[in-house]
Amino acid sequence: MTGASLQPFTLRNETVSIPLLSAPMAGISHSAYRRLLAHFGGYGALYTEMIPTGTIHAENLQRSPLTKRREEEGPVIYQLVVTGKTPVEKAVARIAELSPFALDLNLGCPAPIIARKGGGRALFNDVDRCRRVLESIRSVWSGPLIVKCRLGHERDGWEERFLERLSLFAACDVDALCVHPRFFHEKLKRRARHRLYPWIRQHWDRTLIANGDLTDLSALSLLDPGKCDGLMIGRAAVVKPWIFRVLRGETAIADFLEVWDLFYSYTLDDFPPERAIGRIKEFTAHYAGNFFYGHELFRTVQSAPDLTTLRERAHVFLSSAPQTMRT
Questions:
Q1: What is the pLDDT of residues 181-225, one digit of tens each?
Q2: Domain interval for residue 49
Q3: Strand 9-11 relative to strand 14-16: parallel, antiparallel, unpaired?
């Protein structure tokens, strides 16, 4: 499949012109990171980080890196983390003021801290509470609504439980489903079960988006009428922010130091120094995957006590023509 054959898909009254999306990633997919992706382009829509609806009332929506967006980012999908233990209508209505391209309900996060609060996997597990949350969102949001989930728990009967969720999503007027085909306990262990997408497609006749272990041109094989309509790229886009152009069949030659410097400056535009340093270290931990000796970049940057030292150490490594990994 070539870049020219990538087909758009629709979400209710909106069109995703390129079936390639960036994934929501805690600590990473803030506005500075989306701004970096926008520098290269090639995608159809970008995701925010997980946004807890319980704290959205305290955010300055126009300034917070969680919620702000720049025009060059293009379509932005806001992902919500909802517990269902408190009303969500006011939080959703407040997010709607930003005119998001779509809203996404996180039902897939396996992190214990999220589950203890009732979100992510815990909300997926509770059918009645999940229904109430979806109905509440729909009561104040008429635009595209997406659900992102995993397969559930690896126990006998997981298939029936998963299909029960699909029926619930359809009944609650969900427009698209993004499935990360791993079980909750696996986190990012073992390979994602891409072989399950044709089975999911048989039971879901709306937009289906693939996620998990999509790292190169082989992912395009999932864009098939019997499989998926779109691809959601996560960590591979942190390693290579130009990956969407590659998937479209375009040549994307990147200067590794220039790209890192862009992210560094963009992050300082959005975060105070004491918060920026953690975001830059987290990005660099993934970005180091471009290099054969990337562990050296990771080690020196992670131990940097301040931003000046961090930048100096990154420049020493990235200016040394480091050997890159084959892709």
A1: 999 988 777 899 999 999 999 999 999 999 999 999 999 999 999
A2: 3-247
A3: antiparallel
- Quick check: is 327 in a domain? no
| Dihedral-angle region of residue 22 (phi above 0 means left; psi in -120 to 50 means alpha; beta otherwise) | beta
Side-chain-facing half-sphere of 55: CA atoms under 13 Å: 9
Residue 106 and residue 84 share a domain: yes
One domain, residues 234 and 308: no
Considering only CA atoms, give the Rg of the chain. Answer: 19
306 and 170 co-located in one domain: no
Residue 16 CB partners (closer than 8 Å, separation 6+) = 8, 9, 10, 44, 45, 75, 230
Q: Encode pLDDT of 87-134 as tens digits.
A: 899 999 999 999 999 999 999 999 899 999 999 999 999 999 999 999
The number of beta carbons lying within 10 Å of the beta carbon of residue 157 is: 10
pTM over 0.85: yes
Strands 145-149 and 207-211: unpaired
Instruction: Find residue 51's DSSP bridge partners.
Output: 80
Residue 53 shares a structural domain with residue 177: yes
